[in-house]
Amino acid sequence: MRKPLIAANWKMHKIISEIEDYIRKFISLVDKNFDREIVLCVPFTGLYIAGKLLFGSNIKLGAQNMYIEEKGAYTGEISPVMLKDVGCNYVILGHSERRKYFNETDEFVNKKVLTAIKFGLIPIVCIGETLQEREQNKTFEVLERQVRGSLANLNTLDAEKIVIAYEPVWAIGTGKNATPQQAQEAQQFIRQKYAELYGSIVAEKVRILYGGSITPENFKGIMSQKDVDGGLVGGASLDPESFYKIVMFDK
Ligand code: PEP
Which pTM does this prediction carry? Predict the structure, then answer.
């Protein structure tokens, strides 16, 4: 049984005062004994205060990126040790915005994945096709390349602990979500490819999230699919009540 995981990706939004207000409100909404995992992926400048506010709650903290080294002369970068130090459990890696604007390749994302694991962070690894790739019927080819490239060289134990996020690029921030059937088709394929790498027992355990224009209205349908184990939520996670409704999709 895979425990649902719903993660908020705030991207480059929210200053400290907004983060404080959000987290106080959100904690007051969320039930203590919860049967699902919730993660807030906060911008770097807010991680410390978010970690303090979330301490003792059942809501986990995540970052949105990370560098591949523990420390050193890498001006402007953030290391896995720094993320652990402020209380992060998770880190989003290979988001399509990082691939697009910062030229991150599967090979580089894979280095980050291995580094995150080495330092005790659980990576949420994003993959997904662009609109052009979908229209050219290249979705499966792209997903296979990303799975084999970004998720290579894991040991079996780590391979079942990481989280994969299927985020079709054409659905991110566009208001055009994938249909439940499109999400299922892609995520079933991702699981199959993962099984080819790490075996079917591992592939049955790994959680695969859907991401792309999730709303409180559409999430229940998406979650009804067999291979959808949760969501990575951008825009609709910026408001605590809207994100709470998404977290409570089946209640
Ligand atoms: C995302 O950034 O990971 C995302 C899915 O964004 P949105 O929900 O706004 O489409």
Answer: 0.97
